Amino acid sequence: MGNNILCGHSLAKSPLYIESVHINIYSLEELCWFLSNNPALAPEVIADEKLSEWLFDECGLDGVKREYDKLEAGDGNISERLMWIFTKSHYFSDGELRALKGKIEALDAMSKTERQKKKGDELVKYGKYKRGISCYEKILSADDIKNEPPEFLASVYYNTGVAYVKMFQSGKALEFFYKAYECVKSWDYLMSYLNAAYFDGGQDEMAAEAKRLGVKDTQVSMLLGKIESIKPYEMPKDKDKAIDEWIRAYHISVDQ
Predict the structure, then answer these.
(1) Neighbour count for residue 15 (Cβ, 10 Å)
(2) Beta strands at 16-18 and 23-25: parallel, antiparallel or unpaired
(3) Which of 193, 191, 186 is nearest to 160 (CA)?
(4) Which of 113, 51, 58 is nearest to 78 (CA)?
């Protein structure tokens, strides 16, 4: 995960595999860290039938299994099960548990569309660009999409563009950055669009689009300066190995 996590429970001999982001979890504390930082991905983890077996057989929570089974059999929803795991882990302080409860309640209060976007954002954060884009597409293809605030729509279009950038599909990124700018005439969205235009078709395409959109020459020069100031990427010495790693990372990101 990139952080040191102090484990007070048994380390799992067999990990819990979180399919949506392709990672293995080896402790209850690590699971709590993941779920607390990615609440929009929690429902599918909690709903996984393998979770119960893993918690009690691998993490040493067998002493409270009856509590969990009772919650499973009742009307307890995802949020209640999630807070049960957080509490039984003893990983969080009372203050942290209260903050987590507030975060979960805020997620529950979101509309289905807002939760879908948050899920897409979390998938993109983990490099699962194709899955993230799929979440955004569900939002954009909904019948009532026009009822959403323009700021929300712009953020969905923009984040879709970012995901396409990560997949090296500059043409698609260009399309979605422009849609974001059409929704909200934001300077940041415009700059992202012109950046994409530069990497898709070069300086001439960027300049033509800037002129069409009424961007001043001084602003274009400033943007070009920023682009040109980016340190050139240095190719690794072992190019074949690096290419293999890039290909592997790309296929993982698009679930192939």
Answers:
(1) 15
(2) antiparallel
(3) 193
(4) 51
Extract the tokens encoding 130: 């194709």
CB 159 within 8 A of CB 124: yes
Number of CB atoms found within 10 A of residue 203's CB? 13
**How many Å apart are CA 51 and CA 18, to the nearest integer?**
10
CA distance 140 to 33: 31
d(CA 19, CA 21): 6
Splitting the chain (256 residues) into consecutive groups of 10 residues, what average pLDDT does each group show? 54 90 92 94 88 84 70 66 89 94 91 94 94 96 90 97 92 96 94 92 92 92 84 55 53 52
- Please list the residues that pair with 18 across neighbouring strands: 23
Q: Which residues contact 14 (CB under 8 A, 6 or more apart)?
A: 54, 58
Q: Locate 106 and state its tokens.
A: 């805020």
Beta bridge partners of 52: none
Nearest Cα residue to 151 out of 192, 190, 180, 171: 180
Cα–Cα distance for residue pair 8/239, rounded to 1 Å: 43
Query: Which residue pairs, CB below 8 angstroms and at least 24 apart, start in 81-87?
Result: 81/46, 82/35, 82/39, 82/42, 82/46, 85/28, 85/31, 85/32, 85/35, 85/46, 85/55, 86/32, 86/35, 86/36
